[in-house]
Amino acid sequence: MEGTEQKLSKKASFIVAVSGQIALLVLLVLYKLATYSSGTEILLKLQPVDPRDLLRGDYVTVRYDISTVNSYSSERIQTGDTVYVPLVKGYEGGNKFWTSYGGVTKQLPTTTTRGQVYIQGIVQSGGAAPGSVRKDELMPSSDSQLVIRYGIEDYFIPEGTGRQAELNTGTAYARVAVDESGKAIIKQLYLNDKPWPK
């Protein structure tokens, strides 16, 4: 009798654990779908990428013009910090692309200027060294160059549909959706205003 109860208890624990993981996956998918369908759409220009590093299996890895930004911040920004980068459309040359404008911040502002979007990223380099104690490392200069990863650098492509070097042959950009919390998702890559890969 006791053995049967232990077996039922183990089975119930297993079912609860699996159900929890499935529920977490469903919530993640629903969150991504919500961002995909209702996020603010922006166009981000891609930077040329070393073709040797561009393709990993069925994913293309890209960099954006906003991957490197000036901090313009009065806050102490460290490498590894989550930050929010303000973007505006057509700031440089009145074009269709969104570019960084203004200061990087560690907190998502509660109010934004009309036509401005904040995108969330993680500082990869250029910030103060974590745990630094040297006075000259405590605060990088306000115009220091930060390299930021936004979580939209990898894009799935169907097998055999694209060659990595193609993105360096013209004007390449991404249509990205950004939700109110600054999280972003890639909707489509473009090369010379045509969806890529074909």
Kindly describe this structure.
This protein has two domains: 1-38; 40-196, no CATH class. The chain contains three helices and 13 strands; from the N terminus they run αβαβββββββαβββββ. The chain is an alpha+beta fold. The termini are far apart.
What's a quick, concise take on this entry?
With 198 residues, the chain is of the alpha+beta class. It contains three helices and 13 strands; from the N terminus they run αβαβββββββαβββββ.
Task: Set out the fold topology.
Elements (H helix, E strand, L loop, with lengths): L1 H37 L1 E8 L3 H4 E2 L2 E3 L1 E2 L3 E3 L11 E8 L8 E3 L15 E10 L9 H4 L6 E5 L4 E3 L15 E7 L5 E8 L2 E3 L2
Antiparallel strand pairs: 1-4, 1-11, 2-3, 3-10, 5-9, 6-7, 6-8, 8-9, 11-12, 12-13
Largest sheet entry? 5 strands, antiparallel
User: How many distinct helices?
Assistant: 3
Query: Runs with pLDDT <50, length 5+?
Result: none
- Share of helix among residues? 10-25%
What's the overall average pLDDT, rounded? 80
How is the quaternary structure best described?
single chain
Task: State the domain count.
Answer: 2
What string gives the helices and strands in order?
HEHEEEEEEEHEEEEE
Distance from first to last alpha carbon: 63 Å
Rounded Rg:
21 Å
SS content category: alpha+beta
Please tell me what the overall shape is.
Answer: globular
Could you give the order of strands across the largest sheet? 4-1-11-12-13
How many β strands by DSSP?
13
